[in-house]
């Protein structure tokens, strides 16, 4: 019997393979997003989507850009390195448009966020028993938060 | 030394002017409230890392609140991108420290008054692992490491299968109840790519957090890492975290 006499079997098999591979490549092209794999095994556009979210905190530089007087007042005192937005809250809207008012922090609750006594706090961090020290009085009656030494 | 050649001088001055103009240009966008339009961020030129100075944390919870505000994180008590843990270690039973994190420290902590107990706060957040298990297990490529070393989630591509939530050895991932997809700390990617600090670093009143760029030779992070005894969480997991802890107690997991 001559070799490859019934080559039609092989032809059928080969056709099946070619069609299968073409089908796989076609479906894969349809399913894989265009930007997938540009930077790694993920959609490159996800980087842009993560980058373009709006900010809520303007950052210290934006604050002192206008409020130079407060920056000057804070120089050299214990609160100098605290960001404005630690006490005043997120102010990106105010930084973008000064007409948007910035809320005034509470003169006692804001101080208590940090200065209530707790043994878990590092030694040397200044804490005070508010009720004993001041009764119901607001902290800012005596202390200046931007220059906290009396 | 020869006097600077005129051509060299003009070249250097020109370069300086162009660079300053570029920085000023970026700043204009930030001030105008359109920082997303800031051009020219080269991700490959950065490799972000975080330092946590445990001895400075006072457990005020400002970072937890700022993070939720900045990133619009659900106020649910199981959705945190950063949270604070308090350790209380009884010297009579040091093997079993009591760890608490009421609402992640969002509302602060009730004060510890008990004497004779070793107690301290530890802020936690995504460790931005260089070899991250959460990235390895994602079946669809919805979580990945950016060229600047931040592990992010492609929330529109995520299936919500929760493999990554289980894979993270640090418990840093959660399921966003609104979208039912995985979410985590992005190291404020929308801020750091605009030249701002992360929200938690920005508002920490004691400077317990520091955002550094390991690819910037002038960044103070190199000096800090050289002069301090730092540690990472669970080094035995070989995840190579980029969140370094200074003054970390051996009891912290």
Can you describe this structure?
The complex is a heterodimer of chains A (150) and B (253). Chain A has 150 residues and is an all-alpha fold. Chain A has 2 domains: 11-51, no CATH class; 60-141, no CATH class. Chain A contains 8 helices and no strands. In chain A, α3 packs across α4 (68-74). The radius of gyration of chain A is 33 Å and the shape is elongated. Chain A starts with 7 loop residues before the first helix and ends in a 16-residue tail after the last helix. The mean pLDDT of chain A is 92. Chain B is built from 7 helices and 11 strands. Chain B has a 4-stranded mixed beta sheet, with helices on one face. Mean pLDDT of chain B is 89; it is low at 16-25. Chain B has helices at residues 6-31, 62-71, 133-137, 163-167, 189-192, 199-203, 220-227, and strands spanning 48-53, 82-89, 98-100, 118-125, 143-145, 151-153, 174-176, 181-183, 209-213, 230-231, 243-246. Chain B has 253 residues and is an alpha+beta fold. The relative contact order of chain B is 0.20. Chain B has 2 domains: 7-40; 45-246, Alpha-Beta Plaits (2-Layer Sandwich). At the A-B interface, α2, α3 and α6 of A face α1, α2, β4, β5 and α5 of B.
